[in-house]
Fold this sequence. Notes:
33% helix
Amino acid sequence: xxxxxxxxxxxxxxxxxxxxxxxxxxxxxxxxxxxxxxxxxxxxxxxxxxxxxxxxxxxxxxxxxxxxxxxxxxxxxxxxxxxxxxxxxxxxxxxxxxxxxxxxxxxxxxxxxxxxxxxxxxxxxxxxxxxxxxxxxxxxxxxxxxxxxxxxxxxxxxxxxxxxxxxxxxxxxxxxxxxxxxxxxxxxxxxxxxxxxxxxxxxxxxxxxxxxxxxxxxxxxxxxxxxxxxxxxxxxxxxxxxxxxxxxxxxxxxxxxxxxxxxxxxxxxxxxxxxxxxxxxxxxxxxxxxxxxxxxxxxxxxxxxxxxxxxxxxxxxxxxxxx
Length: 323
Ligand code: ADP
Ligand code: MG
């Protein structure tokens, strides 16, 4: 079966699988539809459960591997990877961030100003058998937060991997030796559904899908669900959709509330209660090369990602971690 063709433009008629893991609620309405017309009852007022402060850990690992995935660019994948990762690390978890986008925005956002200068990146880890995770791992300025960086070299991997045996499993194999050292691994995917993203989905236990609360938020999501379902069926039957995350939300506009409401109508409990508001502090933090939890620790953006950290830690089955 060929994995080529993931980059094709998403067709809205592809039947999606919001509950493809078997645990999600059936969509209450057409999840691919356009936002409600004004005046309809909105679903954005659902009560937020009280997510507990994450309990301290007595030991670390094995990690839950989570892919941040949406083939649309600019929806908050990288911002969420950095800031959710940093917030989870604040709760005493060991976190590994994997930059899996040749643009290297995650590496830049964590202070690697010129990723081109890096000798070894995730590309070498994937393609060279003598390169180990320890060779490419970098510490960040945040306690408990490590990075596997990326740069433009990775753009060649997509083509080069095609000839490899078990080409979809390359990342999973590369990460396996350090899984016991971390509690959470977050993979920042590139904006495509190509072989690199399939590698991330094959390595992952869960997928988090950031959705920008703008008009075209759900465009292409059907194709993403289709890809996830194929990976579940053929490569990784443990893969779950952890949740959909509303990003760049502006609570003052009816439009944003309608879009978020449509997302909730479509995906129900799979939509995180935490929503990330639009604020210029995120681009500012990127320029500073720091997570917002460090750059502006008391900002609304920092607390939003701490809330998301509490929510995901409450949801994720981190078996064997507590106690
Ligand atoms: P992706 O990785 O999906 O392409 P990014 O996380 O890089 O998206 O976000 C795209 C741009 O939007 C970046 O400049 C980022 O700083 C900015 N951004 C991300 N989240 C927010 C937000 N909640 N509010 C305002 N700007 C944001
Ligand atoms: Mg990105």
